[in-house]
Amino acid sequence: MKNFLPLLLTTLTVCLCLSACGTVESAAQDECTSIGWQVGTPGYERCFKSRVNERNMDYSNPPGDQPRPSLL
Question: Which region is the signal sequence (predicted)?
Answer without folding.
Answer: 1-27
